[in-house]
Every structure is written in C-alpha cells, then in structure tokens.
Design goal:
The chain is mainly α. 46% of the residues lie in helices and 3% in strands. The strands form three sheets. Strands 1-2 form a two-stranded antiparallel sheet. It has a two-stranded antiparallel sheet with strand order 3-4. Strands 5-6 form a two-stranded antiparallel ribbon. Helix 3 packs across helix 7.
C-alpha cells in the first residue's frame, strides 16, 4: 500500500459519516471543485501562462488529465499523490502557501476523481436558461423558487410585515423618501378595509413606480457604478460645470423606463447611433465621469492610457460582473480572460476622444475618424511597451461579436454584443444589481465578480428566471422591480428569527427580509423630509450645502459658495461631488468616493456616525424645523404633539410604553430647558425668529426630543 493510499484509508475511517454523505451526493464541479481549485491552485496552475508552474494547467480538463489526473483512478493520479504527500518538496499546495487544503477538501477531490473528474463550464458563462417555477402553493414565481429552497432546509418563510412597515419599506426602496403621515394612514386604513387583499399594496407600488422620485432613487444606484463626480480629481480638481447633465439624463432615462438594453447602448455608443440625439450623445458621459489628470507636468499618453484602461475595467465590472482589469498586465489568474482579450476590449475605446456636446456642453465621447490609432498589447500593463497588435474583439470565452462586415468593429457593436440574448452575463448581472438594492445583497453576493473566485448564486434557477424575464419583458427596469417587490418574499417581516441563526446566519435562504441601514443620501433626505425642509425640485446644477470650516484646510483651489435659500435642502443626490473635498456627512455614512465603479456600498457602524447624527448642521436644522412643524400642525395638547412628532419621524403611531417614555423624557427635558434660561433657547437656531414667543420653551424641548427620535435605530434603518 502506498503512503498516499494508506493515508486515505485512515482519513476514510475518521471521516466515514462525511464520506457516506458525499457518496450519496455526486460531486459537482462548479459547486464543489472549482471554488477549491480557484482559491488554492489556479494562481500557479491556472490560465496565466506567465505564472504557471510545472507546465500544469488545472482549469482545463484536457490539460489536467494529460498531466496529473487519471479519471476514475484517484490513487493513480499524480494530483492525489501530491495533495496527500508528506514530503515537503512534493506536497501541494507547498508548505509556504497560506491556502492549505483541509482533510475534508482532500476527500472531496478524491471522490471527484473517482467519479471520473467531470469538468463543467463556469456557471456564469453558460447560456441563460428559462426555468419553470417549482410547483407548490406559492402563486408568485419568485416565492415558488424561494419556498422550494426553504422547504429543502425544513424552513418556512416569515409572516408578512405589518402595513405601516410595508409602506415605509417600499417607499424608501422605490423613491428614497419616507411616506407622509397621510399616505401611511390611508394605506393602513385600506388594508384594514380589505383584509387579505393585495389590491392596496399593488396600488401603492404602481404609484411609487410612476413617482418622479423613483428616477432619483435608482439613478443614485447607477451613478455609483458610473463613478459620477462633478470634478476632475487629482491635485487641481477642477469643477466640471456641466457634469450634472449626465446625472439628469440618468434620472430621466430611469423615470421613463428606458429599456436597459437601450440604456446600455446609449451610454457606451450613443454618439454612433444613426441620427443620434442630444440626449443620446449626453448619455456617453458615462465614460467621461472618471477622474482626469490635467496637471501641467503629466505624461499625456500615460494619462490617456490609464483613462482608457479605466473604461475597459468599468465596462467589465458594471455590465459583465468580471474583474477584467486583472488581465491588464497578464492573463487573468482565475478566469479565461487573456491579456490579448483585454487589449481587444481596449481597442474599442482607443480611437475615442473627449468632446463636449455642442449645444449643452455636456461631457461626451466622440469617435476619431482620421489618423486612427493602432492598438497593441501593452506588455506588463506598461503603456510604453508595445507587444502584438490587436483589433477590437469580444472576450474569447464568451459568444463571438456579430460580424460587422468589412469595417472594423466599434463601440456600437460592443454595446449590442453586451445586450444580445446570447450574452450570458449582462442580464444576470443587471438583475443581481437590482435584487441587491431590495434585499441588501444579491443572489450572487460578489456583485462585481461572477468569475471563478466569486460566490455562486444562492438561488441559481431564480437568477436565470429573472434574467430571462428581464429580457422577455423588454428589459424594463420598472417591470422587474415590480415583480420583485410584489412577491411575498420581499414583503416578509425582517424580525430576528432564532431558528435560522445556526442554519442560515446570513439569511441567504431569505426566510425573512433584511433590515438595511439607509444610504447616506437617503438618511439626509429622510431627516429633511420629516422636518418639512426638503426641497423636491428635480435636476439642474449641483448644490453646495454648508461645510465644516476646517475642511478648507485640506483642499487646494477650493471655492465652496454655499447654496442659498431652499436650494441647500435639496436631495443628497444633488450635492456637488468634489473628488478632493467629499461632503463629510455622506462619506461618514459610506458614500463612495467616485474613484472606481462602486457596485455595492459598504455598511459600517462607527461612533463617528452617531456624532454626525447629533451634531452635523443638516440634522440639527432638521430637528429644529421638525419641532416647529409639530407646534404648527398639532393641537396644543402635549400628548398629541408627542404622538405627531413620533409619527413624522418613524411613520407609525407609538406603542403605549413608547409614549410613556417619551412623555417622561419630555417632562425632564422641559425642566432643563426652563432652568437654562436664554442660553438653553439657543437650540432653536434657524427657527428662533419664527417660533411664537409663548411656545419657545415647548419648541426648544421638542427640538431635543426630535434629535433623540432621529437617532433611533428604527429611523436610520429600512425595515
């Protein structure tokens, strides 16, 4: 008996229950083996020919079986001998590697080889299927897929959230604004009048989808991915006075439900469309959003190279969910993207120039028609080292680009390739982005990595069902969102469930909804909305709210003239984004810095956030305006005023214990304000001159209560 087989015999005795379980369930390459190979083997034995060791390639079956794997015979396979060897000179991965195999992983490899070492094409490169929803009691197709998976784990879905929670959730998700008190009361009354009926909720969803604020909310998601900013970045960081025209194009396109395929085509190649309109040319501002180095001493060709590389990398991340940027210097270590593939994509952008649209001065792209550049592979990603020349072409591992005839393929061909029904990635990636905004995480948790090192989908059949539906329904963003938010899965309660803590701690099976911290802009908008300060005008030039005085010590050439009147209270979407001078409140709550495409915002929880909620001018002013609003709108009875204050902030009436605590705090705080004299009334701030003299003490007290309520976890989270 060899050392390897002897060791396997011992392992088998130790892990007999696990081995029996695996034997009953055939090993799947994409589910079980590819993640292990990608994580622990591909760096040295993967696609990258420059880094490949021992001429062994494990990502292709033909290569692996020729050199190291004997299908059906694990003990005869060099691969098995190496991963079970005790010899430090032979064992794989080598002892120096931080990515060692566990004993159960070795057994998994043994079973896979014994079962003939089957390979599969990576799931995301396979054609999109159109699966039929599983049979069952669920009438909604999304619920059918979710419930089928839950039943396999002996779980049941959570009950539906109460009406007040539902209207707050879907209003924040679809428009980024909380519902008004009147809207909540009307919806709750309709639900009580029609118990068990979906009609009130369906009416609510349809109303929100037609709101002009829908475009604002979902434009913010897209602008994150478009790395939108109002300035160039780098040392000078000059303002781009017309950058906002691209932002407004996105808002308008989403509000009119421009089909996602056309939305894609216009941003990548709107200038190349026949008889292109001003709007279509403005849409090409997508690739003008990146930082631009305009310093006097910069190497212009190097800066141009970096700018074009950013366009390639962003296109790969946003539309295909692939880390194509990893192939800029060498063939991708994990995915089938060669360095030649990379520069074939680069070639689509190599003959573009930055040109502003004539009538609006909106930043746009244009194609060079004369003295066109030849594109080369840039060896090791060095702009000055030219390798073989290349022509514009799609990724070799994906369906081929449609033949453009005699002419060279251009950006319009690229855009149409991305949204062709045969492309396996674009629809899946787009659906995943939309799903993630409504549940906090996508069906694929690695939103910008659908490759070998990314996570597989939690519900692969549901992902393909939605992707096929998206295309079948004309790439309608609104129809897809409506389908998702009308499911029982979306409408579930987000209450904590003890029964899933051990089995599904991250709630990937979706046996409840997820509570989500509001995005930075939405948190600011919510405070302004509750206070009555929010200015709801759509579009136009960006605004400049007040900034802390010491922030000007950081930037150079900073001119920040605070917007006047009610302009400063417009939605956070419209705040001027200076790359060298990011608005502090937004960055504190994890708004992206526009350096790269942001497909998913981080959500942190820091003491600085609590301090910002208490002291940032916008929240202080919102609390002041909210207190005066309560004084004006509610009867003089303090109990009614406290209830009105609570409802305005949290979109629901207080429970008895909550109103008791609020009343007790009011009495304590009123006494403090009263004993504090004139100095205590300074808290009135922006409302001091408009507060009735006989209401000043009570209003100042309510300011304190408003600040408490707007710091509650319930206010800063989407339920």
């Amino acid at each position: 008996m060899t050392l390897a087989s002897s060791r396997f015999f011992c392992l088998s005795l130790w892990l007999l229950p696990s081995l029996a379980s695996m034997a009953a369930d055939r090993v799947q390459f994409n589910r079980d083996i590819r993640p292990l190979l990608a994580a622990k083997c591909y760096a040295c034995h993967g696609p990258d020919e420059d880094k490949r060791e021992a001429n062994l390639r494990l990502d292709l079956r033909a290569e692996a079986t020729r050199e190291a794997i004997q299908p059906g015979q694990p003990e005869q396979s060099e691969f098995w001998k190496r991963i079970t060897s005790h010899d430090v000179e032979e064992v794989m991965p080598p002892p120096s590697s931080p990515k060692q195999l566990t004993e159960s992983e070795r057994l998994l490899f043994h079973q896979w080889i014994a079962e003939d070492a089957e390979y599969q094409q990576h799931w995301s490169f396979q054609p999109i299927r159109d699966p039929i929803p599983p049979p069952g009691e669920a009438s909604h197709p999304i619920d059918a897929f979710i419930c089928a998976e839950l039943s396999r784990h002996n779980l049941t879905p959570a009950p539906q959230a109460d009406p007040a929670t539902l209207i707050r959730r879907v209003s924040l998700d679809l428009t980024g604004l909380p519902p008004t008190s009147e809207e909540v009361q009307k919806f709750v009354a309709e639900c009580q009048r029609l118990p068990g009926s979906d009609l009130p909720y369906l009416r609510l969803v349809d109303r929100l989808l037609t709101s002009p604020h829908f475009g604002e909310r979902w434009a913010r998601h897209w602008l994150d991915m478009a790395r939108y900013a109002d300035s160039n970045g780098f040392l000078g960081d000059a303002v781009r006075p017309n950058a906002w025209r691209y932002r407004d194009w996105v808002i308008d396109a989403i509000n009119r439900d421009l089909p996602f395929d056309q939305f894609t085509i216009e941003q990548i190649a709107g200038d190349l469309l026949p008889n292109s309109t001003i709007d279509q040319i403005t849409a090409t501002g997508f690739h003008r959003n990146a930082a631009l180095n305009t310093e006097a001493g910069v190497d212009k060709e190097e800066a141009r190279f970096q700018n074009l590389a950013d366009r390639v990398n962003t296109t790969g991340r946003v539309w295909m969910g692939l880390t194509v940027g990893c192939a800029q210097c060498h063939t991708h270590k994990y995915d089938p993207i060669t360095i030649r593939d990379y520069y074939s994509l680069y070639a689509f952008f190599n003959n573009t120039e930055d040109r502003d649209e004539v009538s609006t001065k909106a930043p746009a792209l244009a194609e060079i028609t004369q003295d066109r550049r030849q594109t080369y592979v840039h060896m090791a990603g060095d702009y000055a080292r030219r390798g073989p020349d290349v022509m514009p072409a799609s990724l070799s591992a994906l369906p081929a680009l449609q033949d453009s005839g005699q002419r060279e393929a251009n950006r319009l061909d690229l855009a149409r390739w991305l949204v062709s029904p045969q492309h396996p990635l674009t629809s899946r990636v787009a659906v995943n982005h939309l799903w993630s905004k409504l549940f906090g995480i996508g069906l694929v948790s690695t939103h910008d990595d659908f490759g070998a090192t990314g996570e597989p989908p939690s519900h692969p059949e549901l992902l393909d069902f939605l992707a096929s539906q998206f295309m079948r329904q004309g790439w309608s963003r609104k129809q897809l969102i409506r389908l998702i938010v009308t499911s029982a899965t979306y409408r579930q309660s987000a209450d904590h469930r003890k029964d899933i803590v051990a089995l599904d701690p991250l709630n990937r099976l979706l046996s409840r909804q997820n509570r989500l911290r509001l995005d930075a802009e939405i948190l600011r908008d919510s405070a302004l909305c509750a206070s009555g300060l929010l200015t709801r005008n759509l579009g136009g030039p960006s605004i400049k709210p007040p900034l802390p005085g010491d922030i000007f010590d950081v930037g150079r050439s900073v001119k920040w003239e605070v917007s006047q009147s009610n302009e400063r209270y417009r939605r956070g979407l419209y705040i001027l984004t200076m790359r060298s001078l990011l608005y502090p409140m937004l960055t504190t709550f994890d708004a992206p810095d526009a350096a790269d495409a942001c497909v998913r915002r981080e959500r942190s929880n820091t003491p600085l956030q609590a301090l910002t909620m208490m002291n940032d001018p916008v929240f202080v002013e919102a609390a002041q305006a909210l207190a005066l609003r309560v004084i004006r709108e509610a009867p003089k009875d303090i109990d009614l005023r406290l209830r009105h204050l609570f409802f305005l902030v949290l979109n629901r009436p207080p429970q008895s214990v909550e109103i008791q605590r609020l009343s007790a705090f009011y009495r304590e705080h009123y006494a403090r304000v009263e004993s504090g004299g004139k100095e205590a009334l300074n808290i009135l701030g922006i409302i001091e001159s408009t507060t009735p003299s006989d209401q000043r003490l009570q209003t100042a007290t309510l300011v304190g209560l408003a600040r408490v309520l707007m710091n509650l976890d319930e206010f800063i989270n989407r339920p």
